[in-house]
Design brief:
Number of helices of chain A: 4
Strand content of chain A: 25-35%
Distance between the termini of chain A: 37 Å
Oligomer: heterodimer
Radius of gyration of chain A: 15 Å
Helix content of chain A: 25-40%
Helix content of chain B: 25-40%
Strand order of the largest sheet of chain B: 4-5-3-6
Order of helices and strands of chain A: EHEHEEEHHE
Largest sheet of chain B: 4 strands, antiparallel
Shape of chain B: globular
Strand order of the largest sheet of chain A: 3-5-2-6
Shape of chain A: globular
Structural class of chain A: alpha+beta
Number of strands of chain A: 6
Structural class of chain B: alpha+beta
Chain lengths: ~130, ~140
Amino acid sequence: MDKRNDADLEKMKQIAASGNDEPLLMLNLNRYIVGEYPNGENYTKWRKVNKQMLDTSEGKLLFVLPVRGQRLLNGISEQLDEIIGFWYPSHQSFLNMTSLDLFKRNGELRNQIIDWAAVYRCDPSDLAKLTQY
Amino acid sequence: MSILSTDMNDVINMADRAIMEEIAKTDDHPVLMINQNLYTEKADFPNGELYKKWRATNQKMIKFVNAKILWSIPVKGQIMHNGNGQPLSEILAYWYPSHQAFLDMKDAPDLEENFTIRKELIKYAIIHRCDGRNSPTLPKS
């Protein structure tokens, strides 16, 4: 089950209230329950609800990267199925999204499909270097 | 599935290397390597001398095969996890023009130094292999 990091949430609230709020990149690293990815019923439902949630908020889906393998490891390494990048114009916009009914539904569906996951809060200032090849 | 590298050094996944060699022979195309790194205190990320030395060496190594770093993103926190959480310092995306180009990096003059520095620099790392034809792009607005 997804576990929220309350200490990190508090940092986000502080940034949002600081007067210097800034864009936010959330990198989702997901491994799904066997049979769900990429065509399972609940995975498909989750992606649909996730899109509705983003459309209702100010967030954008930046990219979805299917993971094909693990090339190198150093320490305990969790294998992944997918890496998803979400962009928000501010920390407050992310916090606003968490009050939507769709956010709750999104979480319910995630708990039916996720085997392992981590969501990293990142500095998107380097996003300008993103390039299409 | 979790895999443990018991000596806490970089371990190359030889099974994945075999898959890459097969792709290079049959249906070669760009490959994207997503690097998740947690640095040591000695690295003093992002301004330490060791970190800067590694980035300079790493840049020379990948240039040998015409690869590029698409982005390097400092990690500020972890808002959620499902399973054991893993702190990270940085996530980097490396783009290679082909699987063969990645494999050819074994002949790069800076390869050995790159991995020597990593022994002091890396506390935890994993590299995920992704399809390089689907490289991330900027949002439209």
